[in-house]
Amino acid sequence: MQCCCSLIYEVPQLISERHHIDRQSMLYSMERSLSGLAQNHVLKTLKPNISGSKSLFEKIFGLSDGNARAQSMPCFHSTGSFLLQSGCQYHYLVKLLKMLIHRSRRCNYLRLLEKHCALPILDSMAARSSSTVLESEEMGMETHDTQSESTRTYCSKSQVVSFIWAVCRSIIPPDLLGSPSNWRILRSNISKFLGLRKFEKFSVRQCIYKLKTSSFPFLSSKHPSCECDVKSFAGQNENIQKLLRGIKDSLTNAKHKLFVNWIFWFFSCLVVPLIQANFYVTESEHGKHDLYYYRKSAWMKLTDRAINCLKDGIYNPLNEAAVRNILSKRSFGFSKLRLRPKNTGVRMLANLKAPSRLPRKGFSSRGKCVGTQRNKQSHDRTGKFVNFKSVNSILRDTHAVLKGLQLKEPEKLGSSVFDYNDVYRRLCPFLMSLRNVSTTLPGLFIVVSDVSKAFDSVIQDKLISVMKEVIVEDEYVLQQSCQVVCMERSLWEHKNVLLTDRTLDTDLTSFKPCVPFRSLHSILVNQGCSRLVKKEDICFNLKEHLKQNVVQFDKNFYLQIKGIPQGSVLSSLLCSLYYGHMERNLIIPLLERVSKDITEDLLTQQISSSASTMQNLRDVAVIAPLRYLLLRFIDDFLFISMSKALAAAFFSMLKGGIPDYNCYMNHEKFCSNFDIGHQLGHPSNRVCVSEKGIPYICWSGLLINSCTLEVQADYSRYLINHLRSALTVRWQDRPGHNLKRKVCDFLRPKCHTIFFDSNINSAAVVRLNIYQAFLLCAMKFHCYVSELSYICKLRAQFYLKIIMRSLRYMYRLIRRRMHSSYGGHNFRPILNLQDQEVKWLGLHAYIQVLKMKQSRHKVLLSLLNSKYCAHKLTGNTSSDLNYAIERSNSSSLWRIKY
Q1: pLDDT < 50: residue spans in the chain
Q2: Helix 238-266 and helix 50-61, axial crossing angle in degrees, nearest 10
Q3: What does the pLDDT read at residue 381?
Q4: What pLDDT score was predicted for residue 686?
Q5: At the N or C end, where does the chain have fewer CB atoms within 10 A?
Q6: Cα separation of 278 and 166, whole Å?
Q7: 628-633 and 416-417 as β-strands: parallel, antiparallel, unpaired?
Q8: CA–CA separation, 295 and 171 (whole Å)
Q9: What letter does residue 142 receive in the DSSP assignment?
């Protein structure tokens, strides 16, 4: 008969070292517990007795029902059996778990929280200011210091680690924490866990990193197995010794299973719940992927001020009856709202991708259904809830119709651009036309402006009337296709819906994949499915989406009464159509009137001048139609003109605002490169001057030379935080292979035709753009390797291969992007670049960056220098290459913290 205590070594291997700790539950948790742990936590629900400790043992180590029943068998320890040794690990561990439950009930969590995560005193400052966090943003006013400070009341990660470790020391018996030598390691692993960025994963292997099983007393030889004492059989024959070695190996493996299960439970069921109960964990606008830990009390104060503004701003409270009345008439539900801290307050974010549900009570037995194709609500299996589809899933057909109309009637979107491709297609011909007239560009006058609260200031009724002019057909035909992408370990499927029209090319060859950079590893499948979408249904869904947008925030419901719901698949298109309508009706007519007056004045001056020639008249006739370029990235305007009067008229109109559309500019992001009357060029953080005195205008991630219109990438957004905050490091599953792929990923964002086309940029600026892309890539490479090194150190030769591969990849990527940019336009991209120049620039960039960190990269730097010195361009560089590597031309990048 088997002793029940021996079951300790027969627990199943529920957890492997490849398992990950679930971190999602600790993000954005609004639930607050005054007792340190949630009331439904296992340590709160179990009693500190033998029964409770055995139940906890089963939860941690995964005993099956059969194992549990076996525990009813008599224990040999009570009979004086020869199997009894100095103690029983099973009973010893049950005793420790009993102590754990008892201590968790007596722990003063709040005192430890106040001690290790003390809050700064902001109440007195908050009392001096009656304004709210969101009011200052809504009115476009300067944010009060109190509001800025309130968003910075998060605890440092070291404070949070100190609190977690203090709780662990308080409630966990020392024998479960291991020997003192293990404490430092375990605390370090907790620190690594809490220091993860938003999208990073933490495996069990990282949890147990450097921890030793022998250092945990509950797994040591002090409490051996009940089965047998291996040492007592020493000196027996070889077969017995072989059998004993097998038993010893089995015991070692069994102990490791216990150890892994315990550490997994420690992180997933103790550390994570402690964070979830005591902190609100979120990313911020300025912190990239870094996570910030706010004490629940501090976050509640920030939330209360935001709610007050919600009630007075763009949202109205809704009672439950009103919510049910709205949702009963449609198939999509509501979205959940959360706050994201900013430097000057908070931003409201709504999740329109997730389905929603409400308790069944209060709904009629049959869900109302209005319209021909509006699905009824569904009920869950228990019948206790009514389920609603996500907002975005229902709006998918409307989005497909609007995207198709965008291709068919682009003029309805005005000057809208949605990416670098659109900017390039508009900017390049404009520049070429200017340079065809003269070898030197005439005086250029530039205005850049950003609409204040663009989405929230949209007049809903006005937008609905605009959409009625866009959606004119009674019905539209949609065709469904599917993109299947080959990922590393699986196939990823994405369904696409396209508008079918006889005047549009809807062949799959014209379809733009949703994952363009993996297009070589994907196929498009025409599923042959088509369906009709009626105008009535489109207009109904649009009106419901705009006028009946229900959001939930902290269990309360609100109705949006102003603006466009952000986070919707339609947000960008609706905003672009709205401001496109404003352009067609107000801005373009004004520019045409002013342009006409200017042209007439110029012609009058030329005719009256005896020294003028007919050639001058022809020049004026050529230049007149191309006197300005207007681009708008959603709500961000860029205006370029050769006429100061025209630019001044545009400036004045936007500065005064356009009341008919409730459109007013953000004066902090309003700038020009010329003087207007007695005013100097409008001061703004969007104007910058290089160390050489070259003026640039910052617009939508681009730096535009205001004298030559040459384009560079704007890297200023990396100056706020350490560069590692922009990374997502993957320690698991072949980290070297992941690094190889990541380095190529680092090069893609700033590798676009607009930076390399000689129609736009000079040879020197083209090479400077390549060099700056390599500088940022090298900085990210260093940060990634540094983050990886604590658990994985690779050879310098391997790093060298990755770097050289990235240099070759960059040249291929540039050529591919240049080729794909030519789509039958009346101009062709020009690339004057050699692959050896790209390799030389890359080597130089890596060496300069890694020289700043040479204690870590000493061997790698030696290898890179050898490659650099052996390169044929070293010592024989052109003036364009020398211009590219000049440090003053990349001064902003060298200010990045890496």
Answers
A1: 1-2, 65-66, 68-69, 72, 78-86, 123-147, 225-228, 230, 366-373, 504, 506-519, 612, 614, 617-626
A2: 100
A3: 64
A4: 80
A5: N
A6: 14
A7: parallel
A8: 21
A9: P
Quote the tokens at residue 443: 């005086």
CB 315 within 8 A of CB 259: no
Q: Are 444 and 707 in contact (CB under 8 A)?
A: yes
Report the C-alpha dihedral over residues 667, 423, 750, 869, rounded to 10 degrees.
-120
Q: Which of 356, 348, 349 is nearest to 390 (CA)?
A: 356
DSSP for 676-701 reads BTTB-S---TTEEE-TT--EEEEETT
Could you count the other beta carbons within 10 Å of the beta carbon of residue 865? Answer: 13
The span from the CA of 13 to the CA of 294, in Å, is 36
pLDDT at position 516: 46
Q: Name the DSSP class of 504.
A: S
Q: What is the model's pLDDT at position 510? A: 47
Q: For residue 850, how many other CB atoms are within 10 A of its CB?
A: 22
User: What residue spans of 220-363 are helical by DSSP H?
Assistant: 238-266, 272-278, 296-312, 320-327
* Share of residues in the chain with pLDDT > 70 (%): 80
| Phi and psi torsions of 447, nearest 5° | -130, 130
Cβ partners under 8 Å of residue 507, min gap 6: none
Q: In the sheet where 335-342 sits, what is the strand order?
A: 315-318, 556-560, 550-553, 335-342, 345-351
What is the reported pLDDT for 523?
74
Q: How many CB atoms lie within 10 A of CB 630?
A: 18
Q: Which residues of 555-570 are buried (b: 16+ CB within 10 A; e: fewer)?
A: eebbbbebbbbbbbbb
State the pLDDT at residue 63: 66
Question: Residue 9 is encoded by which pair of tokens?
Answer: 């070594």
In angstroms, the CA 664 to CA 491 distance is: 47
In angstroms, the CA 404 to CA 408 distance is 6
- Decide: helix, strand or coil at residue 439: coil
Of the candidates 692, 755, 721, the residue with the CA atom closest to the CA atom of residue 427: 755
Share the mean pLDDT of the chain: 84
Residue 650: per-residue pLDDT = 95
Contact 297, 119 (CB under 8 A): yes
Do the beta carbons of residue 376 and residue 331 sit within 8 Å? yes
Helix locations, 416-479, DSSP H? 420-437, 460-470
Exposure string of 29-65, with b = 16+ CB inside 10 Å and e = fewer, is beeebeebbbeebbbbebebeeebbbbbbbebbbbee
CA atoms of 193 and 191, how far apart (whole Å) = 5
Q: Is 95 exposed, middle or buried (0-12, 13-18, 19+ CB in 10 A)?
A: middle
The beta-strand segments (E) located in 277-402 are 279-282, 292-295, 315-318, 335-342, 345-351, 356-359, 378-379, 385-388
Tell me the two tokens of residue 819: 């080729």
Q: Tell me the C-alpha distance between 356 and 699, whole Å.
A: 38
Q: Which of 16, 13, 8 is nearest to 208 (CA)?
A: 16
Dig out the tokens for 643 from the structure.
């006429």
Cβ neighbors of 710 (< 8 A, separation 6 or more) are 704, 760, 761, 762, 765
Angle CA 44–50–55, to nearest 5: 55
**What pLDDT is stored for residue 79 in this prediction?**
46
